[in-house]
Amino acid sequence: MPGRVRRHRPGGRRPRRGSGPRAARRAGPGATDAQRVARLLEALRELPPERRTARFRCAVAVADPPGVAGGGQVRVWTFEGVLQGRILQAPAGGGGFGYDPVFWVPEAGKSLAELSLEEKNRLSHRARAWRKAEPLLVGLLLGGGRGAGT
């Protein structure tokens, strides 16, 4: 079953400037992960914990080029994985990278940086998107281009 990629947040709110793939700009060019985390924590300093909601999103797009499945048109499916969480008031854990030390995962009861590799690979936004796309990919690869649910 195909997923959908949203171009903006529900309710019509657009992501704040500097969020998403361009988040590195917040602390300036060449900033380290630690500097970016420090900048984020400073920006959220006055925000109470219940308002420090955050999410990581991953979109996976699968394209079936013309001729591969016997048709003349490109077919495209998109899948989205989301990991909901909160931004901590201070880093916790020594694993991961980027914002992992300050991203609290409620369902795990710890930060991303405190998760084992196995836990992170099970819970991550990338893993969630992949699990949604996997049946289609298996169908396309093993089913002669027909795909799952096509």
Automatic annotation (TrEMBL):
UniProt KW keywords: Hydrolase
Stored Gene3D superfamilies: 3.90.950.10
Region (Disordered), start-end ranges: 1-35
Signal peptide range in chain numbering: none
Keyword Hydrolase appears in the UniProt entry: yes
InterPro entries: ITPase-like_fam (IPR029001), RdgB/HAM1 (IPR002637)
Matching CDD domains: HAM1 (cd00515)
UniProt biased composition (Basic residues): 1-25
Family: Belongs to the HAM1 NTPase family.
Name of protein: Non-canonical purine NTP pyrophosphatase
